[in-house]
Amino acid sequence: MTSTPFQRARSDEQRAVRRQAILDTAAAMLVEMPVAQVSLNELSRRVGLAKSNVLRYFESREAVLLELLDVASREWLEQLDPAFAAAVADAGTGYRGDRLVAALAATLTARPVLCDLVSAQAAVLERNVSPAVAAEYKRAAIGNAETLGRLIGSYVPELGEGDAMRFAAVTIMVTGAVWTHSHPTPAMLAVYETDPTLAAMRLDFTAALRQTLEVLLSGLLARAAGQPGGGLGRGGEADHL
Predict the structure, then answer these.
(1) DSSP 10
(2) 99-124: average pLDDT
(3) pTM here?
(4) 102-130 in b/e burial notation, b at 16+ Cβ within 10 A?
(5) What integer pLDDT is reported at residue 240 of this predicted model?
(6) What is the set of domains in the chain, with CATH numbers?
(7) H runs (alpha helix) in the chain
(8) Residue 7 clears pLDDT 90, i.e. is over it
(9) What is the CA radius of gyration of the chain?
């Protein structure tokens, strides 16, 4: 699909509209295809601009996608508070950790574009941007991680502020890693289908993310409680039965 070519933007308002059109078009492409397939040429074609004109607003394809990653992250964070509240409602102390992790995994599973962008962040999206764009993105990313940490800490206060922030940061990194490994290439899928002994290596994103975060949260809680094992979450449920 192509759009009618824009006339030259002559005001700040027109430039803002054009910039948003580029972001909206790239966001629509991400619904159709993975990050790796989003090209600057196709983005330019769909938005109805020459590639050189797109580059007047964003210095690279990666700069566009980093901004979309920030937007997607903030949209996700806006939905987390009610999701956490529903997940831990009426939960005993020994169950809040696991229920919060389940909510995290479920909300991320529901946002495949965000997960795909997170998986590409360090290895791809941060590789073709200027220091100015990188700094702007990192400031936004730190702010988003701090928001996630505060939310987590408000529902699992036993963590303490420091560990809530650590858990938030690792959640983002683990999400990207698990997404990559749970979305193998066509060649790997073919191998898994033909060789049952290798199919065990195939990961389910939601289950793998949830299990990994459960272990991490249980360990942090056990350390916070000064215990060699147990604590809150699945590892410590027996203490509260």
Answers:
(1) -
(2) 96
(3) 0.85
(4) bbbbebbbebebbbbbbbbbeeebeeebe
(5) 30
(6) 1-58 (1.10.10.60), 60-240 (1.10.357.10)
(7) 12-32, 40-47, 51-57, 61-88, 96-109, 112-120, 131-155, 160-181, 186-194, 196-199, 205-224
(8) no
(9) 21
